[in-house]
Amino acid sequence: MEPLLGGKLATGLPKEAHELFTKADPSFSPAAWGLRWLWNQSEVTCVLSGTNTIAQIEENIDAVRNARSLTETELTVYAEVIAIFNKAYKIHCTGCNYCMPCSKGINIPGCFAACNTSYAQNFITGMQQFLTSSAMMGKKPGSPRLCIECGKCESHCPQHLPIRKALKQAAGRFEPLPIRLGLSIARHFL
Ligand code: SF4
Ligand code: SF4
C-alpha cells in the first residue's frame, strides 16, 4: 500500500535523485524505478498502487511487464537515491490523511510536510507552510504541542510512523520558546 509514498517517489524526488535514475536508465520513470524495487523484494507479493490517470495505469502495467531482478549496478543507484531522499525528507509521511482528524485539532500531515520542506528547501519556506497549515495565527492554532499522546492517529497510519515522536520534533523545530513568544505577541495584535 502507498508504494510510491503518495506520489513523492514518482514526482517529488529531489533533483539530484531524479538525475541519478535518468542517468542510469532513462527508459524508466522514477515511478517505474520505485515499483521495480518493490518487485525485487521476496516478501512483496502484491503492490497496491493508487493512480489518477489512464497514463499512470499504463505506466504501471509496463513496469510490471518489464519486471526482472535488479542488477548490482542498479542496486547501487537505489542506495544513492535513498541517501539523497532521506536527507531531504526526514519524515516519510505520504499525506494520505488516514490519521485524521486529531481530537486536538492538529494538522498532522501538514506539520510533517512543513518539517520536510524546512529541510528539503529552507527553514523560512517550511515555517511559512507550518504557520498556514497549522493555523498558528488563527483563533485556534493547531500546534503540535497540543498532542496528548492518545495514540489514535498511529493506529491508522499505513506507514507506521511514530507520529507522537515526530510531532515533538516538529514542535521543537518550529516552536522553540522565542518563536512561541513572538507568535503569541503577533496573535495578540492581530
Ligand atoms: S496522539 Fe496526538 S496527534 Fe495523535 S490523535 Fe492523539 S492527540 Fe492527536
Ligand atoms: S502520518 Fe501516516 S496516516 Fe497521517 S498522513 Fe502521514 S502517512 Fe498518512
What does this structure look like?
The protein is mainly alpha-helical and 190 residues long. The chain has two domains: 5-88, no CATH class; 108-189, no CATH class. It has helices spanning 8-11, 15-24, 30-39, 54-65, 72-88, 108-120, 123-133, 152-156, 163-174, 177-189. The protein is elongated and about 60 Å long. The model has no long low-confidence stretch (mean pLDDT 90). One iron/sulfur cluster binds at residues 102-104, 106, 108, 147-153, 163-164, 167. The site of one iron/sulfur cluster has 15 residues, from helix 8 and helix 9.
Topology at a glance:
Layout: H1 8-11, H2 15-24, H3 30-39, H4 54-65, H5 72-88, H6 108-120, H7 123-133, H8 152-156, H9 163-174, H10 177-189
Helix pairs in contact: 2-5, 3-4, 6-7, 6-9
Bound molecules: iron/sulfur cluster (SF4) (2 copies).
One iron/sulfur cluster (SF4) binds next to helix 8 and helix 9.
What brief labels describe this structure?
2 domains; 0% strand; 10 helices; 190 residues; elongated; mainly alpha; single chain; binds iron/sulfur cluster
